[in-house]
Structures are given as C-alpha cells and as structure tokens.
Amino acid sequence: MTYKTIKYEKKDKVALITLNRPERLNAWTPLMSSEQVSALTHANEDSNIGSIVMTGSGKGFCAGADMEEVLSINYDDARIPDETDWVDLIRSSKPIIAAVNGSAIGVGVTMILPFDTIIASEKSKFGMFFIKIGLVPELASSHYLVQRMGFGKASEFCLSGRLMDAEEAFKIGLIDFLYNEEDMLDEAIKKAKLIAENPGPQLRMVKELL
C-alpha cells in the first residue's frame, strides 16, 4: 500500500505503521489521519496480522498538529478530514502498541492514549500544549490521562501545559515501558509479536473487558 504521510510494513504477524513526515517531526495533518485510519483498517482486516505497532520516523514521534495544513483545509470537501471516531477505532482494533521515539506533543499524546500499551525511548518527551493556544484536550484524553496518571497529576499536566520527560512519564504511569533509544522499537515489536501469537477473537474480547 502506498501512502504520502505514513509507512506500512509487515513484521511477521505485526503491522508496523510509521508516521512519516520527519522534516516536520511527523506533525499531524488531516491526510495523515485519513491514512492512519486506512492502514489500521487494512491491518484489522488482514487475517495474517495479529497486532499493530505505531511509531514515528526521524527524531520525533509527533509534534502535534501542523497548523499550516489544518488551516488550509477546504472543509467543503466531504472527504477531509476523515470523520472516523479515532477512540472507537483504536478500542475495537487488534492490540496496538505505541512506540514513542521522540517528542509527542498535543495530538501526538492524545492519539496514543487509547492504545493498549505505550512504550517510549529515554529521549522521548510529552506535552499537552492545548492550554497554551486556548484549546482543551481532545479524543477522550481527559478520561485516559486520569485513568493512567490519577486526577491530580493529570490536572497539573493539562493545566500547566508543561513538557514532561520520559523518566517522569514512566514514573507516574503515562507510559508503560521505557527503553534506550536503540532498543525501543525492537522491544515494541517483540511485545507485539508475543501478543500476536494469541487467538484474535479472544484478544479483542480481553480489550473489551479491560
């Protein structure tokens, strides 16, 4: 499959989706969103795929929304932006792991919060900068942040708009596993392969139960 803003690869029974705008630190665009949905749908419909990993190319995971791209959208075009409910898609998807290889800002954080597991490199950083530009968190992130971090820490993180390093993110539960930069993606794929060995219908049942 050919995409402009992401890459799609198969690693045995694992689908590897890579955000691929490294020159913009993989900043999110409506086209990227549509391509993510397409790739996830393809992986979910492929009987040879058991789990999914999403990462970023270059030095960052996702630097938030590319406002130049967002503001240039023709909203009369019914196909842009994609209107798929992201949270519903992720929660009904095959098991999916985020492999955060650098900074995750704004939507770079909120898009991965519904994932089943979040893995990050020691150089990763996290920021909910919405408050800095007069916006509020999206994609049910207020729910998932409280679930992961607790009410007080989630409140401080969102209300301050500060940047959080990987060590703190791991300590308070924003991320689940922390690895050095060289090993992080391999470890994520290794975990995904282990999950993919299990029966698919039951994996989705477990996701619903959790």
CATH architecture: Alpha-Beta Complex
Radius of gyration: 16 Å
Separation, N- and C-terminal Cα atoms: 32 Å
Sketch the major β-sheet.
Answer: 6 strands, mixed
What structural class should be given to the helix and strand makeup? alpha/beta
Percentage of residues assigned to helices: 25-40%
Strand order, largest beta sheet: 1-2-3-4-6-9
| Uncertain residue segments | none
Number of strands: 9
| Quaternary class | single chain
Write the H/E string, N to C. EEHEHHEEHEEHHEHEHH
Mean pLDDT: 94
CATH topology: 2-enoyl-CoA Hydratase, Chain A, domain 1
Any idea of the CATH class?
Answer: Alpha Beta
Count of helix runs = 9
Total count of domains:
1
Based on CA inertia axes, which overall geometry fits?
Answer: globular
Quote the beta fraction: 15-25%
Summarize the structure.
This protein is of the alpha/beta class. The protein has helices at 30-45, 67-71, 86-92, 107-110, 141-149, 151-160, 166-172, 184-196, 200-209; strands at residues 6-11, 14-19, 51-56, 96-100, 103-105, 117-121, 125-127, 163-165, 177-179. It has a single domain, classed as 2-enoyl-CoA Hydratase, Chain A, domain 1.
Describe this structure in words.
By secondary structure, the chain is α/β, with parallel strands linked by helices. It has a single domain, classed as 2-enoyl-CoA Hydratase, Chain A, domain 1 (Alpha-Beta Complex), CATH 3.90.226. It is built from 9 helices and 9 strands. The strands form 2 sheets. The chain has a 6-stranded mixed beta sheet, sandwiched between helices. It has a 3-stranded mixed beta sheet with strand order 5-7-8. A hairpin with a 2-residue loop joins strand 1 (about 5-10) and strand 2. Helix 5 (about 140-150) crosses helix 6 (about 150-160). The longest helix has 16 residues, at about 30-45. The protein is globular, with a radius of gyration of 16 Å. The mean pLDDT is about 95.
